[in-house]
């Protein structure tokens, strides 16, 4: 599978998460304060809550329900109650298109 158009770059608001679904995979797309676009799995691993309804601060996305924050770069939870990471996807910007391949997760260190 190749990358699919997730949304327009112009649809994104800085420091807010935008929920998209590609091939049945829910993804939270975030334009951070540095202008970098991130794509992580949209479901909190603690409670199956949509992360795109959460709060963006710096390079983290916090679940609104229980407060677990996830790194936008690695998907790792930064605090409890979540302890499992969410997937992180490669993002390609082509003009105003944000492209994501939900079948390929980003390797994180």
From TrEMBL:
Mention any Pfam family matching this sequence: Rieske
Q: Which UniProt keywords apply?
A: 2Fe-2S, Iron, Iron-sulfur, Metal-binding
Q: Which GO terms describe its molecular function?
A: 2 iron, 2 sulfur cluster binding; metal ion binding; monooxygenase activity; oxidoreductase activity, acting on paired donors, with incorporation or reduction of molecular oxygen
Q: Taking every annotated instance into account, which residue ranges of this chain make up the domain Rieske?
A: 4-100
InterPro entries reported in the protein's UniProt record? Rieske_2Fe-2S (IPR017941), Rieske_2Fe-2S_sf (IPR036922)
Q: Which domain of life is it from?
A: Bacteria
- The keyword Nucleotide-binding appears for this protein: no
- Quote the PANTHER family the UniProt record gives: 3-PHENYLPROPIONATE_CINNAMIC ACID DIOXYGENASE FERREDOXIN SUBUNIT, FERREDOXIN-RELATED
Q: By what name is this protein known? A: Non-heme iron oxygenase ferredoxin subunit
What is the species listed in this Swiss-Prot or TrEMBL entry? Microbacterium testaceum (Aureobacterium testaceum)
